[in-house]
Design goal:
alpha/beta; Rossmann fold
């Protein structure tokens, strides 16, 4: 990812509607898969500033291991008191096989060239124990590529079919895969395919705080989506894709 984006993320991720909505959606999607599982050690591969890893530790009591290739993001993680930050390549993880009860990677695969994501996926699966939980989030649909995508150095986006196919080839059993950030899809489509081409704006970050009233207005559709996803509804289109999987093998430990 563009190192310049870490400052924008660190400034906004606690309060901005987008990040709050993403966290709410992820929480609700994960909720049905946690009961009956003993999850202690969790790898977040591509942790950025480490904020989400800290949230996982606080909410669930997990021992999180935040890892990122870029030292700039980890600088923010250390400054924020995030425990165990590790700088390493996702394709060459410095951990033994089956070291983690869950592996989570959010918005990382999009930074790999098409086809190169398989090496990263195989390495993530290697460090996941049999029966462990596998969680991915990626940007969806090439038609939604934007000037922010270019600024963040995004190299690909996924469809549901493509994501489930590349993950299934690693041996992971896909338990659920759904689009998200869907209710604002028409707005995003108009902005990225009409407004940005018309104004011919250069690549730039889309991460910035907005007035409180607008923040609340934009957060509300994500709040609604979180409830829909919690009820079991899979959304047919969206700006993101979320996948929950499991590594075959031993049944999850009870606890």
């Amino acid at each position: 990812m563009n190192p310049a984006e870490f400052a924008n993320i660190a400034r906004c991720e606690e309060r901005l509607w987008w990040f709050r909505g993403q966290r709410r959606i992820l929480d609700e999607l994960l909720r049905p898969f946690l009961p009956g599982r003993k999850i202690t050690n969790v790898l977040e591969a591509g942790c950025g500033t480490g904020y989400q890893s800290a949230q996982f530790a606080s909410q669930h009591g997990w021992n999180t291991f935040p890892l990122d290739l870029d030292g700039e993001g980890l600088r923010y993680a250390r400054a924020g008191g995030v425990e165990r930050p590790c700088q390493a390549d996702v394709t060459h993880l410095p951990f033994p096989a089956a070291a983690f009860d869950a592996v989570i990677s959010l918005d990382v695969l999009v930074h790999f060239p098409r086809g190169a994501e398989q090496a990263a996926l195989l390495e993530l699966v290697r460090v996941l124990r049999p029966g462990g939980l596998f969680v991915l989030r990626v940007s969806a649909l090439d038609i939604l590529r934007s000037r922010h995508s270019m600024f963040a150095q995004e190299r690909q986006r996924f469809t549901r079919r493509k994501l489930t196919a590349v993950v299934s080839r690693t041996g992971i059993r896909v338990l659920r895969c759904t689009y998200a950030n869907s209710l604002l899809f028409p707005v995003a489509l108009c902005k990225f395919r009409l407004w940005e081409p018309l104004t011919n704006q250069p690549p730039a970050s889309g991460v910035a705080l907005v007035p409180g009233w607008l923040d609340s207005l934009l957060y509300y559709p994500l709040h609604i989506e979180a409830q829909l996803l919690r009820s079991g509804v899979n959304l047919p289109l969206g700006q993101s894709l979320l996948l929950i999987g499991e590594k075959p093998g031993a049944a999850p430990e009870q606890g």
